[in-house]
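Work through what follows:
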Amino acid sequence: MSDATSRDTVRQAVQAQRARWVFGRYAVACDRGDQAALAALFHPDATAVYVEGSELNGNAEIAAWVIGAMAHVVWQQHGLTVMTAEIDGDRASAVAYLTATQVAADTPDTAVIMNCRYDAELELVDDEWLIRRLHFGVGTIEQRPVQLGSLAATAGKAAQYV
């Protein structure tokens, strides 16, 4: 393997890891209810589909919708695993699997667990990977009885402790 090929392979691996990190920051921003941090992960002209037939446009609209959709939640945890991250210059595509656990204020003894998938396109802008297009799909939803533990605050968003 030539030095140039080796450097390119390392660069591709580093960029793929950096693209993966976007999803970790996405999960934590959701858990913390941090609308500004969430918006910062999306390109200003991003599009996202969380509900079939309804496209959101722009990082501010996307972040506001996501945080609003979780307003009823008193505790949540998003576990995201990026399955693939393919880099092509300043563009990337990624598939991530999500297991989200949420407890709503009106049912504090019941958790909703969702297994979902994100299909995403990212763009490298000013040396930062930003989500350009995102499509969210739900695979399964289940409910189970729970008892909130030490991560759950007595009031407000407990996810701030995640």
